[in-house]
């Protein structure tokens, strides 16, 4: 209960808010999409650790909304990477990792998309909604 954002599984967010992702994480994604698309290597280059830590604390303190205006794109991108890395179970669940791997190894290339779309249906609802 002490965690509001980081390390909280999507199913708990759905129970709390009806959404699989916390509002503050959705806002971070919208910020990057609307303000930072021109940035080179947005998820490759690192942000500044101290600023990312402040953003992380803001998210935990106010999961219903964080204002990202004026924030550094690389810091926000790093925050998102941390969010998904800290989930107790990956969005593409461990149970289905082998399924996705098998698709790329054994399904003919022209059928990859169709096979992956079918495999997505096996994900928990809250993971699919992410």
3D architecture notes:
By secondary structure, the chain is mostly helical. It contains seven helices and no strands. It has helices at residues 10-17, 23-35, 49-61, 73-86, 94-106, 112-120, 125-129. The radius of gyration is 16 Å and the shape is globular. The protein starts with 9 loop residues before the first helix and ends with a helix.
State the gist of this model.
The chain is mostly helical. Helices cover 58% and strands 0% of the residues. It is built from seven helices and no strands.
Question: Which keywords apply here?
Answer:
mainly alpha; globular; 130 residues; 7 helices; 0% strand
List the helices and strands and how they pair.
Elements: H1 10-17, H2 23-35, H3 49-61, H4 73-86, H5 94-106, H6 112-120, H7 125-129
Helix pairs in contact: 2-4, 3-4, 5-6
Q: Distance between the terminal alpha carbons, to the nearest Å?
A: 22 Å
Uncertain segments of ≥5 residues (pLDDT<50)? none
Element string (H = helix, E = strand): HHHHHHH
Shape verdict: globular
Number of discrete helical segments: 7
- Count the strands? 0
Structural class: mainly alpha
* Assembly form of the protein: single chain
Q: Give the percentage of residues in beta strands.
A: under 5%
Q: Indicate the mean pLDDT.
A: 93
Which bin fits the share of residues in helices? Answer: 55-70%
Whole-number radius of gyration? 16 Å
Largest sheet: none
């Amino acid at each position: 209960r002490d965690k509001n954002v980081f390390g909280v599984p999507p199913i708990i967010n759905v129970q709390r808010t009806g959404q699989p992702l916390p509002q503050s994480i959705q806002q971070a994604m919208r910020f990057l999409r609307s303000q930072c698309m021109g940035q080179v290597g947005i998820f490759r280059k690192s942000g500044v650790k101290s600023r990312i830590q402040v953003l992380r604390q803001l998210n935990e303190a106010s999961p219903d909304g964080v204002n990202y205006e004026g924030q550094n794109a690389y810091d926000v991108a790093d925050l998102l990477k941390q969010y998904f890395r800290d989930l107790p179970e990956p969005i593409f669940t461990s149970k289905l990792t082998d399924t996705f791997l098998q698709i790329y190894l054994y399904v003919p290339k022209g059928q990859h998309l169709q096979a992956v779309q079918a495999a997505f249906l096996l994900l928990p609802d809250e993971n699919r909604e992410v």
